[in-house]
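Entry for the shared binder. Reason: the reviewer on the internal report wants the predicted structure included alongside the sequence.
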Amino acid sequence: MTETKKVIIGISGASGAQYGIRLLEACQSLDLETHLVISKAGEITITQETESSVADVKALATESHNSMNIGASIASGSFQTSGMIIVPCSIRSMSEVATGVTSSLLTRAADVTLKERRKLVIAIRETPLHTGHLRTMTQLSEMGAIIAPPVPAFYTHPQSVDDIVTQFAGHALNLLGVENSLSKQWKGLGG
């Protein structure tokens, strides 16, 4: 009997809400159990950057958790998952996770993911970065997080923003060990 993989997806208030939405759509097509938590700022960003309502985005998840519900299943290490992806990840959310001083379910779930030694992918969305940001990313990397800014892969010859977003969603899933056909792999020069 194959166990369904559970993935936690966090959407924070950084620009790039479409990345989180595409990731949820990809997980649906892969029949993955998803646990979604959106920060309050993430809800604002969804309505400003996309054609989706917050309710539409929540409906893409197997289960959606209120960002203030620190008693949710994903706030405990006893809730087994394959890991968590925060996409997009704001500097504030990244900083809370790095310090362990969490103010919401989104950052609490990420903190739990790290303490349980599960994969945590942080798709930081900020530029330029000052030294404090870089130090925080280094600290998270040393703690076991995977820092994966959603940088376009131009070797795939994207024809649209949608192509870029889809490529990153597949790459993020690959980082959690979830096989998919969304991201094109580099086959070498001339390949």
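Summary line for the report: The CA atoms of residues 57 and 128 lie 29 Å apart.
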